Amino acid sequence: MINNKAKYTALIKAEAKRLGFLSCGISPAGFLEEEAPRLENWLNKNMNGEMSYMENHFDKRLDPTKLVEGSKSVVSLLLNYYPEETQQNETYKLSKYAYGTDYHFVIKDKLKSLLQTIQDEIGEVGGRAFVDSAPVLDKAWASKSGLGWVGKHTLLLSQQSGSFHFIAELIIDLELEYDSITTDHCGTCTKCIDACPTNAIAEPYVVDGSKCISYFTIELKDNIPTEFKGQIEDWMFGCDICQDVCPWNRFSKAHSEPLFNPHPDLLEMTKKDWEEITEDTFKKVFKKSAVKRTKFAGLTRNIDFIKG
């Protein structure tokens, strides 16, 4: 059995690499003991803002065996999205993860393919694929699987590649060889905390979601609170400030996923272009993009708020 575990683990990691994942780590499925009080405390302080879905399925969030019956292993995967080129300086900005095709579609296809290979090569393996769309604590699992550590900005950091990556999981009912956890390498650095214009990083390793620019520009359906006027800088969808200032991101390398390349018009658009954007242009530029989440009305609301 030991040999089989090693063989199956090697097979899964090799296939993940072939599919273009940056890295793959595996941990045993079970209750996330350390995360439970943290999550409870965070919710009690209303740091989820209007993201009420964060309060749902509390038990499933902390225990994948309640999410996928009979599960034994959590296979965590990272997919790089760091772009070769970014938007020009003087413009309204999008978070880099939203430049290309919506990552949910791109990663779901890769995960389905990975699960199919596991079933073809190993036999009857049950499991489910997750991309940020179910109650799974992605960063906790990725760090348990040795893919990095959760930084002071609460994003997963890797010494090799920084933090510009998506996290996804396969939760399967197969025992595998497990990776060991990595250590924290933030040290005394507070660049992310110091740079956040809305003071959303309440304390190291705790982000107040209800003050985060990404929350205001994507999740919040009401008007952005007026006290944050002038603090959103030029971010109209998401925000990368805490990542852009992080020293570990000097190791970011451009992704090799064609679907993450931006629409040709996107990088050239000026502030004036964005201010005059029509619904037709919005649909053309963001045809398969995650920006569709905020809709045309949401994006124009954000731009109007920044303009003041």
Provide structural commentary:
There is one protein chain. Helix 1 (2-18) packs antiparallel against helix 4 (103-122). The chain has helices at 2-18, 35-44, 58-62, 103-122, 138-144, 191-195, 213-219, 241-244, 271-275, 279-285, 295-307, and strands spanning 23-28, 73-80, 93-94, 127-130, 149-150, 156-157, 165-172, 201-203, 206-207, 235-237. The chain has a four-stranded antiparallel β-sheet with strand order 1-2-7-4, with helices on both faces. It has a two-stranded parallel ribbon with strand order 3-10. A two-stranded antiparallel sheet has the order 5-6. The chain is α+β, with helices and mostly antiparallel strands and 308 residues long. The chain has one domain (1-308). The protein is globular.
Which structural traits does this protein have?
308 residues, alpha+beta, 4-stranded antiparallel β-sheet, 11 helices, globular
Q: Estimate the mean pLDDT confidence.
A: 95
Beta-strand proportion: 5-15%
Classify the secondary structure makeup into a structural class: alpha+beta
Care to count the β-strands? 10
Individual helix count: 11
**What proportion of the residues is helical, as a percent range?**
25-40%
Biggest sheet strand order reads: 1-2-7-4
Order of helices and strands: HEHHEEHEHEEEHEEHEHHHH
